[in-house]
Write a structure and sequence with these properties.
Number of helices: 3
Structural class: alpha+beta
CATH architecture of the domain at 13-54: 2-Layer Sandwich
Bound molecules: zinc ion
Distance between the termini: 75 Å
CATH class of the domain at 13-54: Alpha Beta
Strand content: 5-15%
Strand order of the largest sheet: 1-2
Amino acid sequence: MDQTDDADTATPRRIVRCPTCGGDSVYSPSNPARPFCSERCKNMDFGAWASETFRVPTQAAPDDLMFNETPRM
Ligand SMILES: [Zn+2]
C-alpha cells in the first residue's frame, strides 16, 4: 500500500502568525508561548502593550491647541 504520504500531510498542527515578529508559530500545547512563536516574542509583546497602556499622551494639552492656530509649514 502506498498511503503513507497521506498520513504525512494530515498532521494536526496549526500554524499561526506570531503577533510580535509575524513569523510562523506552532499553535499547539507543545508551544507554551502560543500564539507567539517563542517566549521571547511573548514577553516583548506584553512589554509593548503594558508601556502603551501606562503611557498617557500628554504631548499637546487641549488648551495649547486652542491658542496655537497658526499652521506649521
Ligand atoms: Zn515571534
